[in-house]
Amino acid sequence: MSTKLEFESPEGRLSLSIADAQFMAYDAGEACLRSPRRLIERMRAMGLGDLAEHHARLLAQNKVTVMELREARDDAEALLACGEPFVDTISPRLDVLRDLITRTQIDMRESVDRLAALSASCHRALSQLPGYQPPSFPQ
Predict the structure, then answer these.
(1) What is the number of other CB atoms lying within 10 angstroms of the CB of residue 7?
(2) Cβ distance 5 to 126 under 8 Å?
(3) Residue 138 forms part of a structural domain
(4) The domain containing residue 37 runs over which residues?
(5) Under 8 Å CB-to-CB from 127, ≥6 apart: which residues?
(6) How far are the Cα atoms of 17, 21, 87, 94 from residue 2, in angstroms, in the given order?
(7) CB 90 within 8 A of CB 78
(8) How far is the C-alpha of 112 from the C-alpha of 91, rounded, in Å?
């Protein structure tokens, strides 16, 4: 039976195994970069799936927006090559994308802040264990 840590976090009172707390404190950020799916699965098992799923949706939205920007650029270049005006067709698309990017970035910052606060609270909880040493990371 694994030992559970009970502690307050920005997400409320949590009860996590030491391994889960270590994952959240030290490995979740890298897991998100490498495989958002792995992060979601692990956080679901901890009861924090909604937070991870929200973050993954924002990452996906950001990727879609980048693709849409590239498509708008390609369309503008094609219209320009044909000598056709593109202000009426491309500018409204860019305005919508600009607004979407702004909202996504604000939401992403909030999500990163929530994940960072959760990571910090897990680190603090682990640090309260007698004799606990955080893992050392190569420099």
Answers:
(1) 16
(2) yes
(3) no
(4) 4-127
(5) 134
(6) 6, 12, 62, 52
(7) no
(8) 31
Q: What is the dihedral of CA 60, 63, 67, 68, to 10 degrees?
A: 70
DSSP string, 1-68: -PPEEEEEETTEEEEEEHHHHHIIIIIHHHHHHH-HHHHHHHHHHHT-HHHHHHHHHHHHHHHHHHHH
What the block records as the tokens of 20 is: 């889960």
DSSP-derived secondary structure for 51-118: HHHHHHHHHHHHHHHHHHHHHHHHHHHHHHHTT---HHHHHHHHHHHHHHHHHHHHHHHHHHHHHHHH
- Given a cut of 50, the residues of the chain with pLDDT beneath it are none
What pLDDT sits at residue 83? 85
In a domain, 54, yes or no: yes
Q: Is residue 133 part of a domain?
A: no
Residue 136 lies in a domain: no
Question: Considering its fold, how many domains does the chain have in total?
Answer: 1
* CB-count burial class (<10 Å; 0-12, 13-18, 19+) for 75: middle
